[in-house]
Design a protein that fits this description.
The protein is built from 15 helices and 13 strands. The protein is an alpha+beta fold. The radius of gyration is 27 Å and the shape is flat. About 30% of the residues are buried.
Amino acid sequence: MNRNVKLRNLILPAIGLAAVCAIAAPIKKNVIDEVAWVVGDEPIFRSDIEDQYMQARQEGTSIPGDPYCVIPEQIAVEKLFLHQAKIDTIEAPESQVAAGVDKRLNFFIANLGSREKVEEYFRKPLPALREQLMDLMRNNYIVEQVQSTLTKDVKATPNDVRKYYSSLPEDSIPYVPMQVEAQVIMINPRIPEQEIEDVKARLRDYADRVNRGESQFSTLAIMYSEDGSGPMGGELGFHGRADWVPEFSQVAFNLSDPKRVSRIVETEYGYHIIQLIEKRGEQVNVRHILLTPKVNNKDLADGVVKLDSLRKEIVAGKIPFEEAARWVSQDKDTKNNNGVMMNMKTGSNRFEMQDLPPEISRKIELMQPGDISEAFIMKDQRKNRDVIAIVKLTQRIPGHKATLTDDYSMIKQMYEADAKNKIIKEWIENKIGDTYTRISEGWDGCEFQYKGWNSGAK
């Protein structure tokens, strides 16, 4: 939940440089516009290029080269992919695109502070911004699908990876910073029953005020919700059932009256009340208010004592760390994995220090492999609550140039990315050769990334 009811990770769709720049482009005022490029029968206007360049400068976005060469070529390449998608009848699922747009708009509102500030920043009303984002995300999805189809057969064998690594120039072998592997045991401190009852009483009061028509749900969410969606009035945008934890989804999808508030829902993130906004097919948009019961200092101290006692037994050899993690730890991400921490960013069990939770990083920095820390209090960022933990440093891998032995997964990913890039580059240049393109005078003195442009001028 920015937890945004992190009810599971809500990953926003990526938008390319051209797309991000375009959404903030000002409305064109010139009736007459210069045609810079033509791809097939579609023009690329100077104003399109200028708008995207201006926005890139405003946002500090780096452009790899002359923007008057890079930006129009990016637009032209996208047009090639979209044309291929029409041939292959590749379409974007509208419900998925709409959900992605809602997430993106909620992200903008949360970061800029209000709908009005979003409209001011992008210089257009929210409905117009939403429509433009729909086009951009639809195109982004389609381009990704075409690329995925082109590269679906890329599979790396160990021999492929070895040959690729051997072919890398010495200065192209990546340097891998110092990494660590660690195991963790976490427990949740006891929360007093009175604290839980107080939280429920507050939520019941909010629900009654909305049901009686005395308060707006969104206003109460802005004022009191402890979720990242609070500044947006608790609105989460359209989601499917699988996007949220089951307890939340079950109640949210059973709501039918937008004027009524749900019962109190308990999840691993705390306690919620929910209000329906709209149902759309297999997706629903709701508001919610989240309150998380707080732990008092005494219970935190008791948790530290409890986990320190367990640590002494582990250090004395009475119980292996792995067994203790399985039986004692309350962290579901590591409990059934012998306490081994997994790096969600890379999918491996290795972390650079900055990728660890800050409290764990500070402990590990002073430890040697095999050491087990004393118990300490840390913040579970996903749930915004304090937990007690002990951590074991399993291995410290010094910074080094990548090797096949230590970094096979990284090199395999590099090989696959390189193989896919070659396939896509070859496809683009073949497509350019089969497509009429014309670059107007003054726009053609570039070293483009791809060969064969300007076939119409020959």
